[in-house]
Specification:
Keywords: Methyltransferase, S-adenosyl-L-methionine, Transferase. The chain is of the alpha/beta class. It has helices at residues 39-47, 86-97, 118-125, 139-150, 169-172, 195-205, 221-224, 226-233, 262-276, and strands at residues 4-6, 50-53, 62-66, 69-73, 108-112, 129-134, 159-162, 182-186, 211-217, 234-242, 247-254. The chain contains nine helices and eleven strands. The protein has a seven-stranded mixed sheet with strand order 7-6-5-8-9-11-10, with helices on both faces. It has a four-stranded antiparallel sheet with strand order 1-2-3-4.
């Protein structure tokens, strides 16, 4: 029998979290417009959704409780996308707690930088048509986790597809067939050299009506400037903040092309494309 231990008390999780994140107390459930003192209570609730099996088996996994399901995620140690990051938990919790406002049933959803697939799995369990994407080397583990946790449990079986930011977007995701209601992204901004390409990808996948839910972990000043770049193209609304994790959850929609700043952004995009020949 597997004894479930909160991931808080499990040594495996320590590398995932800031030390402050482990001091919370369970409490209130709502997310929007919270005062900062609620932060630790909600963070504790979010993190309490994880558990690790105490029984040692040949295959290792970590467990998560969302949408009434036990989700088992296999992680790897060789790359960033191979562990579940706290931002993913924040996004899963948000999706589960806000189903009335943001109903996922039959919606077209794409996740970029899906990593181990937890967010895509939760969106699928909530009834969405999901496309989970990441770099080619991540897709095997991503597909494994998604199949294992969604088969016979979801209205629509999720798809797994390669999407390397900024690469062959017109070929693999032609604008004419992109019809996403939601774009999900957890912890996609950090010290990697593809921030421009990431922005191009958000822009490419987004129609006027698409809603982006993006969870950002604030680390270094250089990466944090990405938020300003992002605001040139998108109207950004901070939905929730978790100071103890240095995480913010944003909702964004494409700016009206006629609004201030957009032509500037177009110029930036043209420059980025011509300098890197990305598309
Ligand atoms: C910090 S991990 C977050 C993973 C997952 N969203 C989570 O929160 O657990 C960043 C993810 O972005 C992906 N990624 C990094 N650079 C990428 C690129 N150029 N194109 C596509 N995905 C990329 C990584 O493979 C990884 O899955």
């Amino acid at each position: 029998m597997i004894k479930k231990t909160s991931i808080y008390s499990h040594p495996l999780v320590h590398h995932l979290m800031d030390p402050e994140a482990q001091k919370g107390i369970p409490g209130v459930l709502y997310l929007e417009n919270r005062e900062n003192d609620d932060d630790k209570k909600v963070v504790a609730e979010i993190m309490a959704r994880c558990f690790a099996p105490t029984l040692i088996t040949t295959t290792s996994w970590e467990g998560f409780h969302f949408v009434g399901h036990e989700i088992r995620i296999t992680e790897a140690v060789d790359c960033y996308g191979a562990v579940v990051w706290p931002s993913a938990l924040v996004l899963c919790y948000f999706l589960e707690m806000n189903v009335k406002q943001y109903n996922m049933v039959d919606k077209n959803v794409i996740e970029i930088g899906a990593g181990t697939g937890l967010v895509s799995i939760v969106a699928s369990l909530l009834g969405a048509h999901v496309t989970a994407t990441d770099l080619p080397e991540l897709l095997g583990n991503l597909q494994y986790n998604i199949s294992r946790n969604t088969k016979m449990k979801c209205k629509h079986l999720p798809q797994v597809k390669e999407l390397s930011w900024g690469v062959a977007l017109d070929k693999n995701f032609p604008r004419s067939s992109n019809n996403f209601d939601y774009i999900l992204a957890a912890d996609v901004v950090y010290a990697h050299p593809f921030l421009e390409e990431l922005l191009i990808t958000f822009d490419h996948l987004c129609k006027e009506t698409t809603i982006i839910f993006w969870v950002m972990k604030f680390r270094l000043e250089k990466e944090n400037k990405f938020v300003d770049r992002f605001k040139e193209l998108f109207d950004l609304e901070e939905i929730s903040s978790f100071p103890s994790l240095n995480i913010k959850l944003y909702k964004a929609m494409k700016k009206n092309p006629r609004s201030a700043g957009y032509p500037q952004s177009r110029a930036w995009k043209a420059k980025a494309i011509s300098s890197r020949l990305l598309l």
